[in-house]
Amino acid sequence: MTTKSPKPKPPLPKPLLSLTPGTWAHDTMSRRIDSEILERTFQENRDEFLNDPTFASAFEKFQALRSDLQSASTSPLRHLHPLPDHMKNDPVAVREYNEWQSILSPHVNKNAPDTWLSAPWMVAEFYLYRRLMETLDYFNPDSPTFLYDPFAKQKFSGLETSVAMAEPILAQVKDLGTKNLREGFALSTAFALWGNKMDLSIWPADTKASDAPELFQKVLASANENLLHDDTEVLVEYGQKLCDKGGGNIDIVVDNAGFELIMDLLLADYLIDSGIAKTVRFQLKSHPTFVSDALEKDLRQHVQYYCDLEQEKYSSAKMAGERWQTYLNKGMWECNENSFWVQPPPMWEMPQDLRNDLKERCDLAFIKGDANYRRLLGDLEWDFSTPFEDVVGHYFPCPVCALRTLKAEVGCGMEKEKVENAKDTDKNWCTNGRFGVVHFSMGSQE
């Protein structure tokens, strides 16, 4: 029996499309995807594409996909190619394929199929990365390019450069779990939100432990200046309740690899160390998408890389990596990949098995990043002041905290005065990551 899932409380607005020149959506689908993202993908995989015979078919399909995007306003979307016979008995592959059939049908199965621009922006963007996986025959175990990650080099580069930034931070926060929960939880959440945007210039490398509390407050104040909504206090109060009851099961719906993922691991480390969480489950992508988004293999690679760092040069990062590896070995940290995290439907349409799992098991879900946040809102044209509680809190199956820096023209739950100030301060206020939100809700009781 299928249970009908709740939706946002207000009437649903229109979805964001990519038809209007001058919008970030139009620029992304009509220009950036091909000339920046796919061009960089080609350059970083140039040797494989041009010199490895096993990539010949993939490169031909890749070129065809680029050609399709170069005429985005007229190129119609199509269904994915059928599964090969030897994959039709794989229940995971069949389910994922059928999900995409369902997603695409409203946009393909009509007299004039949608183009890359007339389809909802969220659909077109996620579809692009799924089509890229099709060009690589990514899911086919009989293919020479099976599970080939075209973004692996870029993600590894981000991992390498993360260490120098992370070392001084990890040196200062290693004892956060033993400190005041209000301060520690707020700070680790701020790092997970802002990452390298946090102002470390006021945090000298030789800071003494006795001076840290005052400096923590300065760092937090600096980080929070550009928050358009901040539920940190309510989040901290809820974290205290979880701690008082012996810790909860907390999920982090992960966004990017590299430094951002390291800050997510810092948050997860704090949640365990402080007693707020008994277990942390990382919800990860099931195939490469949005270039830098993290898969389970990326998370494990990041942890191992930090474990292997030189003790003399990066002692705090190495110590953190060894601690993180212990969490994974003991099952205190878990990894879960799910195809829903690489698909465009709004989160109120999540599969019933995933919804049931979150409702029954999860005491708090952190939703990281811009694309995940857009899906929380269905990528619809909400008034920026529509309460987060009415949109997300009305349907999400468990307590939820959204940590998002604004990188797309969609949002809710932001104070009107702060939005107007942001507009006056920066014409690109909602797309350049300068401003952010911390939203919290106890979620739906249905």
Structure description:
The chain has 446 residues and is of the alpha/beta class. Helix content is 48%, strand content 9%. The chain contains 16 helices and seven strands. Helix 6 (152-173) packs across helix 11 (296-307) and helix 6 crosses helix 12. The longest helix is centred in the middle third of the chain and has 22 residues, at 152-173. The chain is globular and about 60 Å long.
The number of E-state strands comes to: 7
Q: What is the radius of gyration computed over CA atoms, rounded to a whole number of angstroms? A: 22 Å
Strand percent estimate = 5-15%
Fraction of helical residues: 40-55%
Q: In which order are the strands of the major sheet placed?
A: 1-7-6-5-2-3-4
Sketch the major β-sheet.
Answer: 7 strands, mixed
The run of helices and strands is HHHHHHHHEHEHEHHEHEHHEHE
The SS-based structural class is: alpha/beta
Please count the helical segments: 16
Low-confidence stretches: 199-203
Sum up the overall morphology in one term. globular
Q: Mean of the pLDDT scores?
A: 93
- How far is the first residue's CA from the last residue's CA? 16 Å
